Amino acid sequence: MTTLFLITAVVILASAMMVVTSRNLVHAALWLVSTLFGVAVLYAILNAGFLAVVQVVVYIGAIAILFIFAVMLTRREMRDTGPGLNKNWWVSALVSLLIFGGLAYLLSSWNGFSRTSAALPSGFDAVSALGNALISPDAYVLPFEVASVLLVAALVGAVYIAFNRK
Amino acid sequence: MNLWTNPIQVTADWLMSLLTGWGMTETLASILTQLLGIVVLVTIMLVIDIFLVWIERKVVARFQDRLGPNRVGPFGLIQPFADIIKLFIKENITPVGVDKVVYNLAPVLSVFSVLILWAIIPLAPAIIGVDLNVGLLYLVAAGAIGTLSIIMAGWSSNNKFALLGAFRQVAAMVSYEIPMVVALLVPTILAGTMGMLGISEAQQGMWYVFLSPLAALIFLTSAVAELGRAPFDLSEGESEVVAGYMIEYSGMKFGWFYAGELLHAFTFGGFWGILFFGGYHLFGLENLGPLVAAAIVLFKALLGYWVIMWIKYTLLRIRIDHMLAFNWKFLVPLSLVVLMVTALLSTLLRGTSTWVMGLSMFLSNVLIAWITVEILRGRSRAAREEVEGSVQPAVEVAQH
After folding, report:
1. How far apart are CA B16 and CA B165, in angstroms?
2. Is pLDDT above 80 for B320?
3. In DSSP terms, which residues pair with A2 in a beta bridge?
4. Is A122 inside a domain boundary?
């Protein structure tokens, strides 16, 4: 498991690096697909099969495809020229290193940091547990419905903008 | 437990004992055994794929009143091997200006997106790669990878026709994914699980095609659209976009797309059989042994594949705007209505006998179909009257 996690983590970080450094926008989008797929593998390692599959369906099947469409349709020249870094690059590198160090320090002082998760009891159905949590009033029914309303509002807005009045 | 009642487990156990007997650790031996299982499954599917070429050519010949391949070997059975040797010795042309890595990755991903589907197909209760509890969503996710492979092929080919063909195909696939997902929710509701094994098992008493014929039809329609086969093969078109996204591929790279398409059709035929036609259940014959059950599933997959071919070689190509309008204005609302009625009925009738449940489900589907046909008839009548109403005065003027 640890080997699998390390391989996945390296793939995710390397492709995420390629997303921001790649000069070709479509290549960047494809590297993003690789990153998102790596995250799906992480979910699968964590026994969250539903999240893993939804990650692939939503992020690769819909969002990444839309990215690629948008990139192809909006720009004739898909290649950026000019330097990728400006003279302040070391400041941002320093800040991100500090944030990473701070987070690692905070997490290492948490007592759950080095504990391995307990094995799931046999017969435990994570999908139906998730489904029950999403519609139970004690759990997440309100956030779930609010998110749905937000999506419907976005849909209505998109239709309103695109609607061609006769 | 012997080789006949549980062939996979027995073989795996034998391999494990053999490998550990050679001094391997338990983990390494189990990884090797599982890898070997994957290789065997993929090899069997690709060999079936070779014969699918022969089946497709024979069936299309019959539909078009021809004989099909009949020269090489008995019934032309060796013909696909000759075709494959031809594909292998053809030159692999890489056009100028293609994006090499993406260009070469696309056909591989295309076949890969189909092959991974066989991991969740239950050939028998004892012969299944992995019984995922999110099996149906996995089917949709594999489709997402197929969509990605098409857009990669279209973009990397450095050809306007390929890009246009890929755009059309991807637009169709992304839209037809929605009625497909909604239709997949119907067996989920009826069986109470998304796992393929659970859905197969739940159809022991009654096949879901009798409970929800509309969902079966919607799934078949959107599956044909996902495959990009006629009448939805709009990425192809000799006078407009030539061969669509695969225009720049030659030799075995084209062969991969072709093999992927045939295997995809066969696989969706299999899913149709498993989700709506009882999976490995066939009048209790599956109790004879897992190999018989696997034969039943493959037989149903071939039947589904035959239906898909029947549609392909009978219908004409639809224009893209008609195709998208058909999806968004007809299939999506219809599938949503079917889903809501199924959910409502299955909740209301929980605990009643299979026959009451089955009959009311079937009647509700007939009712929905009848209302749909009535609405369609009313709309087409209104459209016809509009056209005739605008034509009539012009005729009168001409008479004077």
Report:
1. 49
2. yes
3. none
4. no
| Tokens 């498991």 -> residue | A1
| Helix (H) or strand (E) segment spanning residue A52 | helix A49-54
> Which residues of B sit within 8 Å Cβ distance of A?
99, 102, 132-134, 137-138, 140-141, 143-145, 147-148, 151-152, 155, 163, 167, 170, 174, 177, 194
pTM: 0.86
Helix, strand, or coil (residue B124): strand
- If asked whether residues A5 and A72 sit together in one domain, one would say yes
ipTM of the complex: 0.79
Q: How many domains does chain A contain in total? A: 2
Tell me the shortest Cα–Cα distance from A106 to chain B, in angstroms: 35
Distance CA B272, CA B266 (A): 10
Is residue A153 assigned to a domain?
Answer: yes
Q: Is the dihedral of CA B314, B316, B322, B327 positive or negative?
A: positive
List, for residues A40-76, the tens digit of each pLDDT value: 999 988 888 888 998 988 888 888 888 888 877 766 5
Q: A154 is in which domain, residue-wise?
A: 132-166
Q: In this structure, are residues B134 and A128 in contact, taking their beta carbons and an 8 Å threshold?
A: no
Q: Is residue A43 part of a domain?
A: yes
C-beta of residue B336 within 8 angstroms of C-beta of residue B186? no
For testing contact with chain B, the best of A54, A56, A69 (most B CBs within 10 A): A56
* Nearest 10 degrees: Cα torsion A61, A66, A69, A71: -120
Same domain, A68 and A137: no
| Count of CB pairs separated by less than 8 Å, A with B | 60
Say how many C-beta atoms besides its own lie within 10 A of residue B381's C-beta. 10
Residue A148 within any structural domain of the chain: yes
